[in-house]
Design brief:
Residues 28-123 form the Calcineurin-like phosphoesterase domain. This protein has helices spanning 38-44, 52-63, 85-97, 214-217, 224-227; strands spanning 10-13, 20-23, 28-31, 69-72, 102-105, 122-124, 130-132, 135-137, 153-156, 161-166, 172-182, 198-201, 212-213, 237-240, 245-248, 256-257. It is an alpha/beta fold. The strands form two sheets. Strands 7, 8, 9, 10, 11, 12, 13, 14, 15 and 16 form a ten-stranded mixed sheet that branches. Strands 1-2-3-4-5-6 form a six-stranded mixed sheet, with helices on one face. A hairpin with a 5-residue loop joins strand 10 (161-166) and strand 11 (172-182). Residues 260-265 have low confidence and may be disordered.
């Protein structure tokens, strides 16, 4: 991860996927918040939304054409008590290992004791995350380590970033988005001696999770980095999955306007 010495180093969203390509020659695919077992919760309430695990598996296998190295930033599982996660997760991850040379997992707040369900080839990191050169990887629900904050970029999930639009008829809808947020020059809490340049928040991979509209809810409850104002969320840049740049968060408050006629015709 020699981004300080390599002008070709990139952190680039993969168009129309909630997935990030990181690196130059030796790239990584980074995703977050699969929440396997979420469909079980829906079905327990009488709403059938089957096929989500299969859909995500197919999409992640497709991304292997970009890189043979996969990093999952937490919440692989939806709930510890999910009905069949104990059988779904081993087979899900084993099939991914047929397509990826390496898989790294940073456990999220939903992933307690998940190591028991994983194939041995999956590398499980501490819940705080890990650092690889100038890039650090976290779920986002815990404080990063000092070493992680010495990188240039902090990648995280957990927040499920999205933006809410209101069309010309006053109807609202929500779309997933990327959230790229500058850090402050100094840590206001005094916890860290240095801070990264930017946090990149990855949208939830699970298609059932549109996310939390940042322009509706602001930065409330978004983990310690945001909650303790180590970043400038109002200056954070919003991008849709298709690459559309929406501008900074402060320009999209309280909700973004859209000319789309949702459901028109």
């Amino acid at each position: 991860m020699g981004c300080l010495r390599n002008p070709d180093f990139e952190i680039e969203p993969i168009a129309n996927h909630p997935a990030l390509r990181v690196g130059s020659d030796d790239t990584l695919i980074v995703i977050a918040d699969l929440h396997l077992g979420l469909s079980d919760e829906f079905e327990s309430r009488g709403v059938y939304v089957g096929g989500q695990a299969e859909s995500m598996l197919s999409e992640i296998k497709e991304l292997a054409s970009v890189s043979q190295h996969l990093v999952i930033l937490g919440d692989l599982r939806h709930e510890f008590s999910a009905f069949h996660s104990a059988s779904v997760i081993p087979s899900f991850m084993s099939e991914l290992l047929d397509h990826y040379s390496t898989i790294d997992l940073v456990p999220g707040n939903h992933d307690g004791l998940i190591i028991r369900q994983l194939p041995q080839r999956v590398r499980v990191h501490p819940s705080s995350g890990f650092n690889a050169g100038c890039v650090s990887f976290s779920h986002g629900h815990t404080w990063p380590t000092d070493a992680m904050m010495k990188g240039r970029y902090l990648l995280m999930g957990h927040i499920h970033p999205a933006v809410e639009f209101v069309d010309s008829r006053g109807r609202s809808y929500v779309e997933k988005c990327w959230f790229r947020v500058p850090f402050r020059r100094r840590d206001p809490t005094g916890r860290y001696g240095t801070l990264p340049q930017e946090a990149v928040v990855i949208p939830a991979f699970n298609p059932l999770l549109n996310g939390t509209p940042l322009n509706r809810h602001g930065d409330r409850g978004l983990g310690p980095v945001f909650r303790n104002r180590l970043v400038f969320p109002e200056r954070g840049r919003l991008y849709l999955l298709d690459g559309t740049y929406l501008g900074p968060l402060k320009s999209n408050m309280p909700v973004a306007k859209s000319n789309k006629g949702v459901g028109s015709g």
